[in-house]
TrEMBL record:
<dbReference type="Pfam" id="PF07635">
    <property type="entry name" value="PSCyt1"/>
</dbReference>
<dbReference type="Pfam" id="PF07583">
    <property type="entry name" value="PSCyt2"/>
</dbReference>
<dbReference type="Pfam" id="PF07587">
    <property type="entry name" value="PSD1"/>
</dbReference>
<dbReference type="InterPro" id="IPR022655">
    <property type="entry name" value="DUF1553"/>
</dbReference>
<dbReference type="InterPro" id="IPR011429">
    <property type="entry name" value="Cyt_c_Planctomycete-type"/>
</dbReference>
<dbReference type="InterPro" id="IPR011444">
    <property type="entry name" value="DUF1549"/>
</dbReference>
<protein>
    <submittedName>
        <fullName>Planctomycete cytochrome C</fullName>
    </submittedName>
</protein>
Length: 792
């Protein structure tokens, strides 16, 4: 049957291409002339530190003698090259002198000893990316700004205090549902434009379902909303929003957004030695995030629990366990190869600083590890002030597949409350064990009895220390000691005091969530706006620094940040207020004047059409086919797998729960999701890339998952013998697209069914099987359409 369904999928694809045109040109944003955040982060984290440590001594403006007349301390210097020519050919690593030299192929750089294979691969990837390089010949100097200089320098906008601007006057005050609408409408009126018309009720209900719970509405839910909306308009919207915010699926949708920021993964990822050990207990942190968002834990408390949950008071064993699990936020990051890296402990600290800096503050603090930040006001001393906090913290990731060359074994939190799920010993995946594990010494005995519930996380070290500056990022080359502390450029009225009795993580959380911290609330508000509109007010959500984009609506950003804090840091409340605004409820369709004047929709005259992310696409297919299990998934497929999983295809066991419960192995993603821009989970990601690749079309056309779901969809549609073919076409459209087919669509669909039936007559003699295959063709065609895969 599967073979035959795959055969007829070609017919389905012709149907899609012929009758469902590509996404309208107006829905795509123009490419930015600036380097994208992912490229900048790659350079700053992977390339610049190596250049500084290994190349600048001989190839910079400060070198006593410029080796080979090649400067490597500036973008233009590497492009012009030296005596042997340009250092690279963009996009072609095998033709680049730089890569040949790093491989010791004719040239040898650095001359004292070759770089590790992992670092060489980073440079190869950099060249493949087109050598993105933000450096200039005269970089900005990172200096600690005082309040006056920060206020006078617009480039340091995110370090300035959050204001509380009054909503501006507008010509059409009755248009505004919420004060935030005034900030938007004022800008539109200044541009002498008008907002687009309101979204149709059908588009609005679908938008709300996807944005709030990540699932499509059923035909019955759409009909119920339309009936309520016809009589009560905005009151119907309010009722629906409150219902969706109270749904347990809210935490599954918005928890996935946070897991991107938290760089969540259930394995270590490739550590440079080609090893990928599992983290069998990481899923407990995933479940913590889902439940915390469903419970609307205030964001300041949510952050505090993840940074310092082990230091908070708990009233019950269950609460104590929950707080310990929360600290998995700091433990789940990818670890480097211990065997290749004398800086292992400081690399773990660097990952923790990066998730706090980028994830919470929107600042690339980790760039100050080797030198003062080149453009933001973050000196190296600030980096090591934070490093002391995490160096005084024990990170607990567990056995790491019993591979000390990868990451030395550490303890885990033992959970003591009753009722924790523990997977039975014989459940879950059966791994293909990497042959390299067979040569290891005797596997150490487990220190925890079978069935003990365990969790990754952090706890205090017995000895609290201040960190010494690692000169050029080298942990063996030490400079002066830096007292533990925070970013000096964030000028606040009161800064929590650190003592020698604790690491300072609790004080760090208090500092981040202080009422006058300039970044924390702005960054989170911006992330929420991004997920509701498809574009953020600051379009570089992970970079609020000098080279990040400026806010399109700075007063609106501050207005929302103030509301967020004064209303108790409630994520649900802020989302509720935004989706009930008139700005959110605009149509994504507009007239040519708006498109010509503001093609990137910076003025928010209209809503943005958006493609479903990987998880929402899979979940929608399961929901429409009738195969979605809406209960939470229990544990993980690797809950009992503590091995290297480089070839991990058989670890991705089939299940029909929400996609957030799939096994998320680094560098071995679930096959149902991998084609659609999943982040690699090695660093915080606030905004996913959105690519359009042939592999995505091939997945929609040929993947066993989609073929099987189309088959299930067809069988469900055929289950009622009272329906005729016209009724069934209407049913397929209502379930897949939340609407009835137009007359022309109905006729095309019926003709398609007839043509496919004739084509398969010689292939499938049994009428019942052929009928399922015929209807599966139509079902798969609709699941391939832009109308199904995009939200207006």
């Amino acid at each position: 049957m599967r073979k035959l369904l795959t055969l007829v999928s070609a017919v389905c694809w012709i149907f899609v291409v012929a009758f469902y045109p590509a996404t309208p040109a107006w829905s795509a944003n123009k490419p930015s002339s600036r380097m994208n955040p992912k490229e900048r982060a790659f350079f700053e984290n992977k390339i610049r530190p190596v250049l500084v440590k290994k190349c600048y001594s001989c190839h910079s403006s400060k070198s006593e003698e410029l080796g080979g007349k090649l400067r490597m301390d500036s973008r233009d210097g590497m492009r012009v090259g030296g005596e042997s020519g340009p250092a690279f050919v963009e996009g072609r690593p095998n033709e680049s002198l730089l890569i040949q030299a790093l491989r010791y192929d004719g040239l040898e750089m650095p001359p004292d000893e070759p770089l590790s294979e992992a670092v060489i691969q980073d440079f190869i990837q950099w060249v493949k990316m087109g050598v993105p390089d933000p450096r200039i010949d005269h970089p900005l100097i990172a200096k600690k700004p005082d309040v006056e200089s920060a206020a006078a320098n617009p480039e340091l906008w995110s370090f300035q205090s959050i204001t509380n601007p009054a909503p501006p006057a507008v010509n059409q005050p009755n248009w505004c549902f919420d004060p935030l609408d005034r900030f938007v409408l004022a800008r539109i009126e200044q541009a002498k434009l008008k907002p687009a018309h309101d979204a149709s009720p059908v588009h609005l209900v679908r938008r709300l379902y996807f944005d709030l719970i990540g699932l499509p509405p059923t035909a019955e839910q759409v009909e119920a909303f339309l009936n309520d909306y016809e009589q009560h308009q905005q009151q119907a919207v309010i009722r629906l929003v409150d219902e969706l915010l109270a749904s347990p699926h809210f935490g599954e949708r918005w928890g996935r957004h946070w897991l991107d920021v938290a760089r969540y993964g259930e394995s270590n990822g490739n550590d440079g030695l080609g090893r990928n050990p599992t983290f069998p207990h990481a899923w407990r942190y995933r479940d913590y995030v889902v439940q915390a968002l469903n419970d609307d834990v205030p964001y300041d408390r949510f952050l505090t629990e993840q940074i310092a949950g082990d230091l908070l008071t708990a009233k019950t064993p269950a609460e104590r366990d929950r707080l310990l699990i929360a600290t998995g936020f700091l433990a789940i990051g990818a670890k480097p190869a211990k065997a290749m890296n004398v800086n292992f402990d400081m690399d773990v600290v660097n990952d923790q600083i990066n998730v706090i800096g980028t994830g919470v503050m929107g600042l690339s603090v980790a760039c100050a590890r080797c030198h003062d930040h080149k453009h933001d006001p973050i000196p190296t001393s600030d980096y090591y002030a934070l490093a002391g906090i995490f160096l005084s913290t024990e990170t607990m990731w567990g056995y790491a597949a019993n591979q000390p060359l990868t990451a030395p074994e550490t303890p885990l939190h033992v959970l003591k409350a009753k009722g924790h799920y523990v997977a039975p010993p014989d459940s879950g995946a059966k791994p293909n064990v990497d042959e390299r594990t067979l040569s290891r010494k005797k596997k150490p005995q487990k220190v925890y009895p079978a069935g003990t519930p365990l969790a990754m996380g952090v706890r205090e070290k017995k000895k609290i220390v201040d960190c010494k500056v690692n000169i050029k990022g080298e942990s063996k080359k030490l400079g002066p000691k830096v007292p533990r502390g925070f970013l000096s450029a964030c000028q606040m009225e009161q800064t929590p005091e650190l003592t020698d009795k604790s690491s300072g993580r609790l004080q760090l959380a208090q500092w981040l969530t202080s009422a006058d911290h300039p970044q924390t609330s702005r960054v989170m508000v911006n992330r929420i706006w991004l997920h509701l509109f498809g574009q953020a007010l600051v379009r570089t959500p992970d970079d609020f620094g000098v080279y990040g984009e400026r806010p399109t609506h700075p007063q609106l950003l501050d207005h929302l940040a103030i509301r967020f804090r004064t209303e108790g840091w409630s994520i649900k409340q802020l989302i509720r207020e935004i989706v009930l605004s008139h700005t959110y409820q605009l149509s994504s369709f507009c007239d040519e004047q708006i498109l010509d004047t503001d093609p990137e929709n910076r003025l928010l005259c209209r809503h943005n059409r958006r493609r479903l992310d990987a998880e929402s696409l899979r979940d929608s297919i399961l929901a429409v086919s009738g195969q979605l299990n809406r209960e939470p998934g229990l544990g993980s497929a690797i809950a009992n797998v503590d091995e290297l999983v480089n070839k991990a295809g058989n670890l991705h066991l089939p299940h029909n729960h929400r996609s957030i419960y799939l096994c998320m192995l680094r560098h071995s993603e679930p096959p149902e999701l991998s084609a659609f821009d999943l982040p690699d989970s090695t660093k915080p990601v606030g905004k996913r890339n959105e690519t359009t690749l042939p592999t995505q079309s091939l997945f929609l056309l040929n993947s066993p998952f989609l073929v099987e779901q189309a088959d299930s969809f067809a069988k469900d549609v055929l289950a009622d013998p009272e329906l005729n073919d016209t009724d069934r076409v209407h049913l397929v459209y209502r379930r897949a697209l939340n609407r009835s087919p137009e007359s022309s669509e109905l006729q095309r669909a019926l003709k398609l069914l007839e043509d496919v039936d004739q084509a398969l007559e010689s292939e499938i003699s049994q009428a019942d099987l052929r009928r399922v295959a015929v209807w599966a063709t139509l079902c798969q065609a609709l699941l391939n359409t832009n109308e199904f895969r995009y939200v207006d």
